[in-house]
Amino acid sequence: MSQTIDIRELNERIERQSSFVDMLVKGMDEIIVGQKHLVESLLIGLLADGHILLEGVPGLAKTLAIKTLGELIEADYSRVQFTPDLLPADVIGTMIYSQKSEEFSIKKGPIFANLVLADEINRAPAKVQSALLEAMQERQVTIGESTFKLPTPFLVMATQNPVEQEGTYPLPEAQMDRFLLKVVITYPKPEEEKLIIRQNIKREKKTVSPILKPQDIIEARKVVHDVYMDEKIEKYIVDIVFATRFPEQYKLEHLKDMISFGGSPRASIGLALAARAYAFIKRRGFVIPEDVRAIAHDVLRHRIGLTYEAEANNMTTEEIISEILNAVEVP
User: Fold this and answer.
1) Domain boundary among 164, 184, 200
2) Strand 115-119 and strand 77-81: pairing?
3) CA angle, residues 113, 215, 79, in degrees to nearest 5
């Protein structure tokens, strides 16, 4: 009985403290037409303290989305355009020698911001990608002999263009695993596109008023940690991830030759963190199986390797995840 009272109290508390979510979504909607999934994913990344890899053709408001979010939470925003001639120093910073003072001074790079957009990350060589991903993982940067902590909250949204593969350096699997979510965004609906045309023809620049401070996001993260996750949900998450590794144990024998490698323990952690953040966004104090299912594709799609056989049969990771979700018993 005390458990239900605790849950009820927790539910009420989280409903109160998640009220800003609606304000943020409303603020984003005023600037960005459609792209609900992108907006939701950005909020999950912020609240679960994870980074996002975005895949979509150019012109789908990826840059605008993260810039608007930065303005809404009064956070520092920076954008790095990744190119084949980019150097790690261009991202993290470097040491500059001053002839006047006859000593080196440190010039910090664009990575020192709350929200960093790494545009077309697959255009830069591995050295630059690894410098960025080290900063993402360690939340700190070393320039010369000095180590600097990155600001909090710190979120990297990296984009890659799925169409143009010429002159790109695909991200290795170990680096892909660093991203909490891989979000695939598609074209807007016809009605949404009409609105986009109207907005751009008017050329009225809408101003964004800050709703929150970065500190509010840090406080909200503490509340997200309090979202209740039952042992049955934990088992459900583990079952989903194990089904990507050993599909035959879940009556999915036909997938055994389609998967070259399954999700790592980071996949399980990612599912748990993102499900909690999703429950918080839906203003609920506990995680339900639907929360896990809602974020499963985004958390797992970049963590499952396909075999040549799967590619020959035109099997995608999307289909594999859907089959696993349909086969694993829901608590």
Assistant:
1) 200
2) parallel
3) 20
Query: Residues 311-331: what's their mean pLDDT?
Result: 89
Which tokens belong to 147?
A: 């180590």
Q: For residue 221, how many other CB atoms are within 10 A of its CB? A: 17
Based on the domain organization, do 43 and 161 belong to the same domain? yes
Domain that holds residue 292: 227-327
CA 164 from centroid of its chain's CA atoms: 22
Report the SS3 class of residue 153. Answer: coil
Q: Which residue has the higher pLDDT, 203 or 277?
A: 277
Q: What is the pLDDT of residues 61-109, one digit of tens each?
A: 778 888 888 888 888 889 999 888 888 889 988 888 878 777 888 888 8
Question: Which distant-in-sequence residues (6+ apart) come within 8 Å of 57 by Cβ?
Answer: 161, 162, 163, 187
161 lies in a domain? yes
Whether 216 is covered by a domain: the verdict is: no
* Number of neighbouring beta carbons within 10 Å of residue 185: 19
Number of structural domains in the chain: 2
Q: What is the model's pLDDT at position 1? A: 36
pTM attached to this predicted model: 0.88
Q: Is 61 within the bounds of a domain?
A: yes
DSSP strand pairing (259-261 vs 305-306): antiparallel
Whether 173 has a pLDDT exceeding 90, the answer reads no
* Rg, C-alpha atoms of the chain: 21
CA 218 – CA 74 distance, rounded (Å): 13
Query: Across-strand partners of 79?
Result: 117
In a domain, 66, yes or no: yes
